[in-house]
Amino acid sequence: MRILLAALATLVTLSSTAYAGDIAVYAGDFSFTRDSKHETAFGGVEYRFNNPGWKGVWSGIRPTIGYMSDLDTVSATYAGIYWDFPLTKGAKSGFVITPGFAPSYYTHTHDGKNLHFGLEFRSTLEATYKFEDGQRLGAQVAHLSNANIGNKNPGTETVEVVYTHPLF
Question: What are the pLDDT digits (tens) for 119-129?
């Protein structure tokens, strides 16, 4: 956790205002569909870069780094991409659909959900409302899975409320 916070602080410090990005925080339900034994509340934080200036179809891609944990039995550190698809083109506010993908390093304690491999892939789908000042509020669902790289692939799903705030 300290390493991630240091990395976030470094990125914020080194980022120009043109590429600064957003901080996202989320909280929700971990392992809510498959395994009630491991269902628990959890939360996370992300740094979402602004698009580095790509045009056309690539203009919605945003690199991200993040950390999630239930503060007791499971945690994951990840880096990947989100791809924003505004439903109202050219408007400062409106609904945004955002799929995402991120490889992650997943750890668990004896009581936590064992996903049977340290490398897990986090696939997400987010629906948010973007306000005129750049803040967003919405919901996200995610799936964590090792894509059958490990000896077992139980996977898990999460659902969360997400809030993002632009840094500059």
Answer: 889 999 999 99
